[in-house]
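Table S7 (text form). Paired inputs.
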Amino acid sequence: MLNKNYISQDVEQKWYPVWEKSGAFKCDPQSSKKPYTIMMPPPNVTGSLHIGHALTFTLQDILIRFYRMKGYDALWQPGTDHAGIATQMVVERELAKQQLSRRELGREKFLEKVWAWKEESGNQITHQLRRLGASPDWDRERFTMDEGLSLAVRKVFVDLFDQGLIYRDKRLINWDHKLMTAISDLEVENHEISGSFYYINYPVQGAKDRFITVATTRPETMFGDMAVAVHPDDDRYRDLIGKSVLLPLTDRLIPIIADLHSDPEKGTGAVKITPAHDFNDFEVGKRHKLEPLNIMDEHA
């Protein structure tokens, strides 16, 4: 007699291994059938699957099963991603519970810990995918740091460089002073906070007792200033464009430049330009060929 309710755990855990062992999910590269392939966007090994994974993997699974039934040689290529920085953070938190740091362990021992975590977390993810009923070709599972994949990444990188499509340059980055590494925008949470305007007088070179007053919310980056910008149509400063001011507390002269970035209605209408510490200032610096000056060390 059928149960009144469908007990998924009893049914699915029984039949999935049967499907997998039967070879129902496998592709056959030697087949004469028309191929159909989906490369699984690899989930990070840093944690568990979330609802977004469940949605996208379900859609991919529908497609791959549909084409498999239509007679295509269907390959759904499974894999996981290393997510290096996020993985490092997880492992370092675990070490901190033992009053240890990666520097105390040394590079080789720390890497052993990272690989051990990858095995544990990666296995959890593939277990969850199986529980979802996903039908990738598990014999072809890959990890983004497998040697073959790393070689492919290096080849593509070199090809793009040779074609002039990627280049080396100085850019602003998100720096984590704890992990001592750059991190992507995806790893950053931005928070708006209430700040204050600080007004600083910059003495104009060659004009006794004349100052240009800068309004800033970031006085701590003043020593990285490379210019003071005013709006080209601001009559208050028109005669100062092209002159220089003395950066307060230093003996360094910086130019007064005209740029649309300066808002005449905001503050004093004159803004300090610190290309190494503000994304807008970085763009102004590029337009006026200002060299960025980093005033912070790796410990921030």
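Next pair, protein 2 of 2.
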Amino acid sequence: MTVLLAVRGVTKVFGGLVAVDKVDIDIEAGSIASLIGPNGAGKTTLFNCLTGLHRPEEGEILFEDQSLVGLRSDEITARGIARTYQNIRLFGRMTALENVLVGQHLRLHASHWSAILRTTRQRAEERAARQTGRELLDFVGLGGQEEVVSTNLPYGEQRLLEVARALGSRPRLLLLDEPAAGMNPRETERMMELMHRLRDGMGITVFLIEHDMKVVMSVSENVTVLDYGKKIASGAPDDVRANPRVVEAYLGPEVAMEGPVAAGER
């Protein structure tokens, strides 16, 4: 398999606190991979390093063999990486479609003047963007809700809308920060199904942070575990679940003894 994202010795320090400590991770193209660990383990900090919100003090981040270190967040998005956040960050007064249109802005080419003058090219691009937005909403399961104000959507559908907005930038790698947080079992199942369709239907590699171990063990081909900023394990879900260091630091014996749960069994 081809390595799409390579993290090599990445270290991030805040004051005297080492939040991420010489972490190495390979994310293979076409895979679904998970990053797990206790609260404060450095998971979101690592995602922030991958997306340009933080610059690591040490290490290298390679996406398709090109360095991301030092690039702005919008430059990294333009390279083909998109993300969602642990806390929902929709534009609350915008409709679902308008939120997705915002996600497409890096892929649009009309100038400010053409937008002001409403040129033929600008109108055609806007029509195409709206059509793409409707298709993305339909893909994530929000077809027919284009004109609903985002804050009026149920919580689980707001999570789906965040994914649709991220897809507007046409990513090859999608980072999901706790996509199932706060969801009920049915909503969680929809999110799990969506992750598989993103990979299988759109060819998007998925890398997620998640605390729901049933989600992690069901969707992931590879799981990486952080504890106090250090990588303590990485591998197939069953191998990670049986790793004594992971059991001690995070899972506990009850989760370690459970078998994988398929989406239809939830």
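Confidence is low (pLDDT under 50) at residues 259-266.
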